[in-house]
Write a structure and sequence with these properties.
Mean pLDDT: 79
Distance between the termini: 37 Å
Structural class: alpha+beta
Largest sheet: 6 strands, mixed
Low-confidence stretches: none
Radius of gyration: 17 Å
Strand content: 15-25%
Shape: globular
Number of helices: 6
Number of strands: 10
Length: 202
């Protein structure tokens, strides 16, 4: 961003986590802090010494250079930035795969279409998803509709089971180990404020 910028309209957190939808819009500050604290990436086989297969990892702010004793300070500073800049909208963008019945790779072109849509009114349509506790992108100009349809990519109840048995336990263990005392918030709030995104009507 420009050093002369007076405000930031969007903040994007990239995560690499299978079963996470391509785009989530987070409008709850404490939930945004939780996402930032547990960004998920991967250690690639062949690119790191001693790694023979891809290993999922989590790290605060996707920054491996933050000293562990400074994690809490870093998170508090992040939350303060969001609180004092309410105009900033936060998106969590997945770069992995989505789907089980049919697993689809989320490509850089899908991500670029999302970023382009941020600056164009009504280019991104969202709806509140109880499973994720925030707003999920359901229509984005330039992104295949099939990729955004979680109901078509998973059997009924399958994603809920994956979230309960695989994803949530790992997240909770991560916070207990690395950030003792930190209280994560996994569910956000449902409001009518989805500006600048279009809210899908039921």
């Amino acid at each position: 961003s420009s050093p002369n910028a007076k405000s930031v309209d969007f903040m994007v957190i990239l995560t690499r986590r299978k079963h996470s939808p391509p785009v989530l819009y987070v409008n709850d500050t404490k939930q945004a802090k939780t996402f930032y604290a547990a960004v998920e990436s991967v250690k690639r086989a062949g690119t790191e010494v001693g790694i023979t297969k891809d290993i999922p990892v989590r790290m605060v702010g996707a920054n491996p250079f933050i000293a562990k004793l400074k994690h809490v300070f870093h998170l508090e500073n992040f939350e303060e930035c969001l609180r004092t800049n309410p105009q900033t909208k936060m998106l969590v963008v997945n770069t992995d795969h989505f789907g089980s019945k049919k697993s689809i790779k989320i490509t850089p072109y899908d991500n670029f279409a999302t970023w382009e849509g941020m600056g164009r009114p009504n280019s991104i349509e969202v709806e509140y998803d109880k499973l994720y506790g925030n707003y999920r992108g359901v229509s984005i100009n330039g992104v295949p509709k099939e990729l955004l349809d979680r109901h078509g990519l998973y059997a009924p109840g399958e994603l809920e089971k994956i979230n309960k048995e695989e994803i949530m336990p790992g997240r909770k263990a991560y916070f207990r180990r690395l950030l003792p005392g930190f209280k994560p918030k996994f569910k956000g709030k449902k409001t009518s404020d989805t500006h600048p995104f279009k809210l899908r009507k039921k």
